[in-house]
């Protein structure tokens, strides 16, 4: 039984990537063809034969090449992967006497997470925000001590193929988290990474406090004006 050995690959987006096929047989191979599998029918990309060497179709020139020039094993290389390159590819070995023998290898592209972790005080609560952007979409979870917390998550897909996940942890009692460490856990492609932030004591916005300060300032200004005019009038009356 003739068998084609392939292996699926996962590579970083916007970097080179390669797919390889190997035919486990001693049959004579006349030509190797690489095709991209599409919904309607496979699309020819490139071929290799002893007589004609490597022939790359016009749509794929400057994008890919056959970099292992063999008839028993063949490797196709993408010079700089784009979202359009993600998918499955067929390698066809056209043998003498046994026809075409094929295998399928798939390429998956990813982007490493970019993570931001911060917090902000409000009048009556504390918001701790963890945002991660990656491909495929990351998963965010929290490790925080205490109670009285609400969690909301927003997911946004981008045209560059990445997905942003933003998780906001609302703490109803800000003082309970003072000096404590919060951990945002980001799961991506089976790996969990902890991002840590310590909540430090700070000033958070308070409407009653602000109104009190403003009122006090206005009162001091009015008193200063009254004292000034009283002094001026006293000076004007003196001979």
UniProtKB/TrEMBL annotation:
Gene3D superfamilies: Immunoglobulins (2.60.40.10). It comes from Rousettus aegyptiacus (Egyptian fruit bat). Its main location: membrane. Residues 14-102, 113-200 form the Ig-like domain. This is CD200 molecule. One of its GO terms (biological process) is negative regulation of neuroinflammatory response. The chain crosses the membrane at residues 203-229. Pfam families: ig (PF00047). It is a single-pass type I membrane protein. It is found in: Membrane. One of its GO terms (cellular component) is cell surface. InterPro entries: CD200_Ig_V_dom, Ig-like_dom, Ig-like_dom_sf, Ig-like_fold, Ig_V-set, Immunoglobulin_dom, OX2G-like. PANTHER family: OX-2 MEMBRANE GLYCOPROTEIN. Keywords: Disulfide bond, Glycoprotein, Immunoglobulin domain, Membrane, Signal, Transmembrane, Transmembrane helix. One of its GO terms (molecular function) is cell-cell adhesion mediator activity.
């Amino acid at each position: 039984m003739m068998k084609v050995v392939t292996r699926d690959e996962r590579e970083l987006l916007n970097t080179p990537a390669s797919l390889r096929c190997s035919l486990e047989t001693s049959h004579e191979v006349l030509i190797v063809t690489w095709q991209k599998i599409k919904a309607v029918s496979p699309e020819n990309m490139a071929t290799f034969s002893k007589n004609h060497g490597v022939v790359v179709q016009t749509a794929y020139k400057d994008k890919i090449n056959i970099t292992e020039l063999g008839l028993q094993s063949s490797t196709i290389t993408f010079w700089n992967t784009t979202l359009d390159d993600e998918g499955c590819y067929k390698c066809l070995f056209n043998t003498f006497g046994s026809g075409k023998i094929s295998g399928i290898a798939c390429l998956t592209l990813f982007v490493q997470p970019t993570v931001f972790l911060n917090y902000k005080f409000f009048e009556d609560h504390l918001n701790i925000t963890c945002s991660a952007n990656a491909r495929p979409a990351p998963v965010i979870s929290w490790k925080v001590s205490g109670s009285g917390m609400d969690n909301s998550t927003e997911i946004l897909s981008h045209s560059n193929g990445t997905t942003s996940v933003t998780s906001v942890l609302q703490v109803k009692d800000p003082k309970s988290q003072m000096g404590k460490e919060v951990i945002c856990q980001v799961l991506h492609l089976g790996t969990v990474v902890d991002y840590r932030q310590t909540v430090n004591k700070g000033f958070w916005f308070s409407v009653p406090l602000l109104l009190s300060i403003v009122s006090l300032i206005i009162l001091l200004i009015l008193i200063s004006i009254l004292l000034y005019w009283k002094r001026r009038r006293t000076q004007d009356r003196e001979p």
